[in-house]
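Notes, Module 5: Reading structure tokens.

Key idea: the token line is not a picture. It is a compressed description, and you learn to read it the same way you learned to read a sequence, by spotting repeated patterns. We will look at two proteins. The first is printed below with its tokens.
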Amino acid sequence: MKLYLAIIFVLVVILFTGFSTSQDSDYSTVEDICANYSADSLEFLRLWSLYVDLDNRNQHDSAVIICKQIISLGDSLEMCKSDSSVYEKYAKAYGGIGWNLMMLQHLDEARVYQQKSLDLLTERFGPYHIRITEVLNGIATNYKERGDYAAANKYYFKSLHVMSKIFKEKHHYIGNNFYNIAHTYHASGDYDQALNYFRKAIVVHKEVAPDRLSIAEEYGTMALIMTKMGKYSEGLIVIDDADDYNENIANNSNFKPLIHYFKALIALEAGYPSKALPIIQETIEMPFSTQSEVGYNKGSFYQLLAQVYTALHRSVDARSALMEAISFYDNYHGPAHRNAIECFILAGKSYAEDHLYEQGIFQIQAALRLVMPEFDKNQLDKNPECFHFRNNSVILDLLKVKAELWNEKYNHSCQKYDLEISLETYESALVFIQKCRTTFQWETSKLHWQGIVASLLEDGMLTACRVYELSHDLKDLESALAFCEEKKSILLYSGVRLHDMQITYGIPDDLLECGRSIRYELDRYEREIDRRNRSGESMNYIQDLVALQLQWKTRQDSLLEIYRKNYPAYYAANFEAARPSFNNIQSKLANDETMLSYSLTGHEIFLFIIDKDSVYMRRTEIDSNFIKDISKFRALISSKPKQFEGIAQLQIDSFVSLNHRLYETLFRPASSLLRGANLIIVPEDVLHFIPFQILIEEYPDSGSYHFRRFDYLVRQYSFRYEHSALLFSLPSDRRNRAKYSYLGMAPSYNTKMDFERRPYQSDIQDQETWPSELKFAELKSNDIEVCQLQEVFEGSVFLGAEATKAKFVTNVPDYRVIHLAMHSYIEDRDPLRSGFIFSHNENQPLDSCFLYAYELYNMNLSAELAILSSCNSGIGKIQKGEGVMSLCRAFKYAGCPNIMMSLWSINDHSAKDVVIAYSNYLQRGYGKAQALQMAQNNFLETADEAYTHPYYWAAFVLVGDNLAVNINDGMNKWIIAAIVFLVLGCGYYIRTRHKRS
């Protein structure tokens, strides 16, 4: 009986899955099949047919079990080695396990099986095989589920590359990949690219499958994106185009309900739920001719109906619709599908609107149980343990909503316990955020993740502060600081920490060089792919670049495995979550130092004040004018002052008024708590652009307005800055590996730069003030500045035409103090392409004079101090959740702990005076921050009246420590050596005389 069943299954496989044997065999009868296949082989094929059926019916658990049986049987089958078709199914069984585990939200385990499937298929069939594209798409979907959209699109592009080699003409698989890429861009918030790839998908699908249902989805999602971009009318036009296309060409009965669905969704997104309601109600009643689509789409329709009811405050109707949606999703994709989880979230929020908080929280717990079956959903106040977390962004959504519901419950009940559980839930979310970030492959993924989680971190900080105000327990305040610091340069912290550990743990230079080379190549391909995508170049060439980039990523993974096995402490630093503690911070503070760490929310500024023995928190309300005041104040101090008397008086009046308002908001809450005259500022967001040292404590009398005589804070305090308290708390016992003391670079700019010859057309030409052919203004004082510092530090200088990028790159790793007196520029759209401008030789490519930020990121500096005497070296694009992407950040990442940078376009002459004075105070043994304080005060006292405006002297700030620079370290070594030699010589002489006597 079993044999007959096996024969029937084989026939089914042949007829419906296209099964074929090796090319030189042609079995046409049941007898032939039975004669040439063993009982195990027939069982293998029966299992495969059973798996296909289970997979089609979304029976994920059963499908995984059957695939494992297929693999177990395949391991012992000789036919797996000889028959390509059987081997293909054996390899695909690994992918089948991966796919179904992914549907069950077991993403990490799924990724292992997907990689195994990819390896087996590549080993047997080479890199260009149709089944490889399926596995690559599965891996991409896995990353998309994690929220790692950059990695997802890398694999979608890889799949596209393979398809382009297989299909010489357009094929619906290629259209599907465009569709997947577009959806990933949509999820990441890159709407322009999403629209671009949806259009590509529509072009392909119209040509090869004009009645394909996905065309309706592509049109509809494009319209939705346009609505999100504020282009409501344009979105409706696109929907009408889709309707016309179906009427005239596609003639697919399933188009109409989907088009109506998107019309309702667009109306809801545009803020018209009453318009959306009759549309979606009508849509639900429309029939689907393709039964396989009914479950998924009906679930989506009921989910949208629930959202419309929620917007109309009909919560009971909303929950009823959600239960219908969950039922459809359960039947179509299984209970743990992302859309089903979203329904549980909506249900939880709906209960909360009716003040039924426990029922709402139970919905979230039930969803967590679906994603993590080992979690107990019945204990509402319990959260998953960190070792239970899977790398799945759905978990973050659930923890966030659960914390919000406990917060709302506290607002209603005023029970401290409810707020404490909310904080515990936010703490669990913080652990999950840290776990996810360490698994992301690319820096772009990590930066995007930081932007996504920034609002959750802010809510966590607010909740921790509320708990602290009730408990007065410092551990709650420390928790607030942890949330605050998690959204301040956490990626920079990781990079600097790894750099320091490379030194501390003695990893061989060849491995470090290998790592730097790999990072450089990955960054290079990342930029080139992005540039060619934006310029609309050939897709085939872009796909080739993506394939090459993935090869470098594979090398990086192999290198990390070497680190993990041979240098576990170093490897652990790449995955170990960081958390600031008051003890660590206080242990690094001097007795006369105070740290002020700021966090901006929508309506308040939170200020953490930490000195050697005490910790305080202050919160100050701000109104909608605060950010405007910052912008106006920055415009005043960063612009060259007007000399006309009427305008000058108006400027000074505005300066005093804005300055004192900012002092009252930012500094007054801490002024009575300061311990000593040395301050460390940890700013956030726009506060990075304000030098605190120019704030005025006392409002001056109107008759005594004068820039020289104002009571600036710099007269009382030295200021230094840090990107985050975590960076401040890093160990400072770095070995001094520099061979030489000082490297100064002062280029000349006497040649025109032809921008047609530069490699990146978008780098500079897009800036309105820079024409296609450009001659930079000559700097009249930069060579004087560099030569003066050479006398102080006794090092090397390169002046004029000798100050080239090539000489900088060759020499910079060996110097303790780096001084760049030159032009620089900021590229906000792509901060990695900001850079410094060295001397240019007309006979060389333009790229030879630009030192890009991405090149600095890949350097390994020994410098103790970098003096960046160039325009805007401390500003750049503000990356939500990470901070300012400046040239200073690039130096910090490369291993230089102390940077003197500028916050605006500096004046050549006054910058020279401040920098020279700074070096003189360093030579006299003052700490770095105190030396800058004294240099700026000295400038205020001695400069001509016309130069006392802050524009001329206040641009420079210090990021780093307040230790003295060991100016004569090299000379001291020679002196010590000479003394030792002299003592030994004297001893030898005395001993010789003694023997003779």
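Here is the second protein, with the sequence above and the tokens below, as before.
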Amino acid sequence: MKTLRLLSFCWIALFTSTLFAKTPPELKWRVLETDHFSIIYEKKHKKMALEYAKAAELSFKVLSHLFTEAPSKIPLVLMDITDQANGFATFLPYPYITLFPVLPDPFSSISQYQHWPFELVLHEYTHILNFYPVHGFYTPFKYIIGTIVRPNGFLPRWYMEGLAVAMESFYSPYGRLSSPATHAALRALAQKNQLQKESIDRINEVDIPQWPFGQRPYLLGSLVWQNILSQHKISIAEKLNQRFSRRIPFMLRAPAVEETGKTFPQHLSQIYKQLKRTTLKQIKKIKHKGREHLKAFHHSGTGQFNQSISPNKRYLVYTSAEIFKGGEVRLVQRNHLQESFSKKNFKVLFYAKGVRALSWLPNSQAFLFNKTDIYNRHYAYNDLYIYHLKSQKTQRLTYGERAQSPALSPNGEQAVYVQLSGWKTVLKQIHLKTRKVQTLYDPGPFKRLSSPTFINPTTLVFSLRNKTGQERLYRFSLKTRKATPLLPHFSSVSRPRMTSKGLVFISSRTGIPNLYLSSNLQQASAISNTSTLVADATWDPGAKEWITSRLTTEGLKLFSSRTKAFSPPHISPLFRVKKASPLPSPLKTKMPSVTEKKYSPLPYLVPRYWIPFFYFVEGGVWFQGSTTVSDPLGKHTYSLFGSFDTFTQKPSYALSYVNQETPVDLGASYGKATFVAANALTLQTQSANVFASFFIPSLSNNWRMGVGGRYLSTDLPSSKGPLTVKQAGPSIQLQYSNAQEVDPYPFLGGNQSFYIQWVSYRKQKDFLAYDQLNTQFSYSLKKPFPSRHNLSWKIQTSLAPQLPTAFIPYLGSTALGGNYLASLINSSHIMRGYPSGEFYGKTLISSNLEYHMPVKDIYKGHLTDPYFVKSLSANFFVDTAWVDGFFLDKENTFILTSPQKAFWGLGAELLLNMTAFYHLPIGVITGAYYGLNAEANGGFQFFLGLSFSGLSQVTQKPSSQATWKGL
């Protein structure tokens, strides 16, 4: 029955929905044991694992001088299944780190690094050490409740991420606080008076729909720490860490004032004022060297980038992103070649993620690009595609190639691209007709090659970042397969591109990323003088102007300008970042002592914590305790649950286990549950289930199938004493959901899901026999409604025509009167405007038609108080139910009804979206419901409830990989 699934594990699911992501079952895993880390890696990546072992032990060495407490050993998983550099650290069920080790995208906020393994591990290990201390009145709870008692794990995002960014900047010559891109972003905000609007309550949030979007805790949280560290020794981080480890969470003022002399909001305000003064001086200095005459593209959206003009000069394509929408590839068309593209409107060609280059074919009727998609069920990889303008169709060229930044040869027959992997980038070439791929150049581990471009049919130029963090231009001969430095006096370069004017590229040699032009490949001069940064540029030979992508207070936007030479002044960083002395030397670090062994999940499968929880339900209070345990690779997961409620005065308990070692997920569960049936009768059910779940061969990840078997034993009241009804039989189910495809572009609508399950309770001695069919279909339509409006419909059926009428009140399907987080009613049908448990049927069909719309964007909190109000939205609905069974009248008498009669409910809900306790996304639901069928106790009902979006943000602290594009 659904009691266990909907009730027993509702709280566990909130904590573990993303905590234990499944790893590809075909991978073979090994472990390198060092003194302080267990490096868990894919067998073929041993050399990479050894480098991360060095980086991890170096991170421990430098941070152990600052933080006084640390776990004895940390599991560190190297998971090379995505082309997005990232990582997370968690304290549940035990402290561990997972890293996605691919080298960072050159256009991300973390692109300025020296030694990527060291800085990545350092950031995440800072989180572990930040989480770890537990003292004061927490100490006994640590031994009673377990590892969930981590008061520092509930500090604000800006505190934790700002501290980690500060540490990566303190122990590295680079780091985000030292990045020219960071200082460009701060200048953009400061000169438009946007900094002061980013109050300390706002910088905790990652989903405010304004630039800098999800960067707030990292970019602006690190400013709080920058201001603190500029006035105190680095040891202040550990002093604050220890203070918060013994205090009631969310009370931040006293430790900040006593240890630093100011509150955290005062620190933020102080550095904002400093940045404003410094920015105004710098802008004055920049303007003294000449002003640029720019024409803005008045196109909506942000992240405008990758602009490319067709050979016939009629088309411009570029990538962009719309708030509440997603990544777009846009086309601008002009009729007169001398007309500026900036004056024309755009149309969206298609939607895509991870596009890093658009390269036209010679016929101007198609272009080559890369995008990110799911490959082989489990991998988020980049591949190459061609889009044809005439047919408006996309042709896929590669599968699982991890191909980025493609560039076509002048004749359009070949293309070069950068192939990514966990610890290197390789230059490759593909023949478009034969699809033959060959390796051109392998610069070696941890060297980042990016943005290859043809300067003639046999020569390429690309940028290459070496192991020490220097990034320069290189010329590459296709004939000799050798790379030689180009314009070696230019450093910190990116995005080279060949145009009819010559080679253009971006360099931050003066402290600000400006655009440079080299017409002879011997010398180069600046052709921009920006106060923020130029991210990309191309020459328009028709209108004779440059089209540049520049950072603004709305993110990257397109501008056009005429050619003009500048001499940009040298601009110092906005502030001096304190550095360790001497700085660690990752490249000179000796290999620590390591031992290699096979990976075993068993040591991790010991319960480490339990979560106490209570919830007010209809007629009582629900108390429960639960725990979930998994190994770091998520191959084995089990959950334990126990509860007691004051309404039924009965306990419930459950155990479930899932094995994900193979392509087929195998699982089993057992539990005893108490719930309320008709006339407030208390029923107890014992349930045992086994199942196998798997993707369907040759179909997309949208489809999944499951088979299993179940046993149920339900104790029913009767005039002759308790009656036990037993049921057992096989089950099969099929489900479909396109949410993974649609969610990145939520404005499109078309979200569809479908579920069908058949259970056959077989005839045996003392067993009840009948078949049950459960189905659910939902659809969301967002066009042609305004942005963030949508119309959704869900229809759900439970069909058991063979169920004896006498058992309908106990074993039949019923409905809830509202969206309860937890309920003692065993149902997933919703029928608002009527009491929960009003309808009982062997057949129950429910329909929910809803219109959702935004009411008000708020995005406001109060200083460091642990709440933040985001938005208010409304939901108008019509619910309908058809029942073959009974409803209860006002005297609680069963009244027969049939599917020919429909029951109706309608009403409205207001949803207040909030962040509670700095991390927990919650919604406060207020509903006014009205049931139209008075004979079935319909009428006006008021509803107040909560919804949780998930708690993974509480237990996992990921590194931010959001790019300046805001994608």
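Summary for the second protein:
- The CA atoms of residues 75 and 93 lie 12 Å apart.
- The first strand starts at residue 29 and ends at 33.
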